[in-house]
Amino acid sequence: MTRDQILQIVATLAVACCTLAMPPALAGSEAKPAECGAVPAGMACVPGGVFSIGWDDQLHPDCNQHSFQKRNRSNTLGMHKVTLSTYFMDITEVTNAAYRQCIREGKCPKAGPNYRDFKRPNQPVTGVSWHDASAFCRARGKSLPTEAQWEAAARGPQGELYPWGNAAADCKNSVIRDAKLGRSCGVKKAWGSPSKGRVLEVASRPPGRYGLYDMIGNAEEWTADWYTDDWKRCGDACQGTDPKGPCNGASQCKGVRYRSVRGGSWYWPADHATAVHRRPHRASNKPFHHFGFRCAASVDEARRLTSVESKRK
Q1: 33 vs 49: CA distance, rounded Å
Q2: I need a labelling partner for 128 at 20 to 30 A (CA). Which of 18, 62, 239, 289 fits?
Q3: Residue 197 belongs to what domain range?
């Protein structure tokens, strides 16, 4: 048995331990679903309510020795509750075809994949900066999801660790690096070296809650927030109702260098593929990494989008 296989087994056992130990206190209260109204094409509604964000070592003292807890506790920052208004999320990650269309319209900066066999129309666009992703969402009348919105959509009101529940990530439910099969669950590239490892077409795995695809795995996703390594120090901007992260989502944030990326990917193993895993990265996305994104919409934004759609019919 190889070292990678051993690590994969340990990570799986760790997740099982932690999820079995999950106390009722971690679950978000079941808010009565808000009326979603008309849902924009290609989006899903996340009814507003109270959600659990983050992970807390103290709630899981028996799990701390395992790799899942060790490798995630440094940036999950402790569990806390947030209240979110109803919002909408793109069902899939933004594709190469969709981003190229935005470039042709003159509404998006030129950007895109920098890896071989990453340019198929229905693959998620990668190689885009945070600024590129934000520009696309604005051009479509939407916005990047906040970290709280992203995590709530992935975990649901019960605070589960995955979009499908509490079973660990594997190649049946997500596009990740498998200890035996390799990156992208062993799917080979059409050309180029190394022979394995690429994003797969969106929706190549079953949807999770709210009907959202690829919230875990495939392409890691930009969020709107500046990255913080201490939600308590961040204060009200990271907690309470509809938090927007450090500096309340302002375009400039003194002393903060990075934006937050979520969701794991084809490149990383299962212990990155949880709904609580976070990582920081430069908004410029240099050197060019394999980050993608999806957009969100507020109720007001969704109302404008559906109004435009109805006029086109």
Answers
A1: 7
A2: 239
A3: 26-53+78-312
